[in-house]
Specification:
Layout lengths: L5 H6 L8 E7 L5 E7 L1 H10 L3 E4 L4 E4 L8 E8 L5 E8 L26
Parallel strand pairs: 1-6
Antiparallel strand pairs: 1-2, 3-4, 5-6
Length: 119
């Protein structure tokens, strides 16, 4: 397998364990779907295959979104934030994005910590 483009690798600011935060949004709505982590190999695979690939901190291995559930993410765009420590991954989501079966990991009212009452 080839490696991440050296120019991209040079720009990334990783955690001490070599990971970069990935905020995943639905391309058509800009709704935040989930947050995950990528190492260099996951990012390289994502950029070359357009299949969202992440690094599971709990399992210590790569995983392709939807490889077991069928709830896939086709990657439309990947952006690096101004500090180069977070990726914005714009995807076409098939099925629920959250492992709990909801469309997004952020859509349950019981998880709201603060909301504008005028909204």
């Amino acid at each position: 397998m080839s490696e991440l483009d050296p120019e991209i690798a040079r720009r990334l600011k990783r955690t001490p364990d070599g990971l970069v935060c990935a905020v995943v949004v639905e391309h058509s709505t800009s709704q935040v779907l989930m947050v995950a982590w990528m190492n260099d190999e996951a990012l390289h695979r994502t950029l070359t295959t357009r299949r969202a690939t992440y690094f599971s901190r709990s399992r210590g291995r790569l995983w392709v979104k939807g490889e077991t559930s069928g709830h896939t993410q086709y990657v439309r765009e990947v952006r690096l934030d101004c500090d180069a420590d977070t990726l914005l991954v714009r995807v076409d989501q098939t099925g629920p994005a959250c492992h709990t079966g909801t469309h997004t990991c952020f859509d349950t009212d019981e998880r709201v910590l603060l909301a504008d009452p005028g909204v």
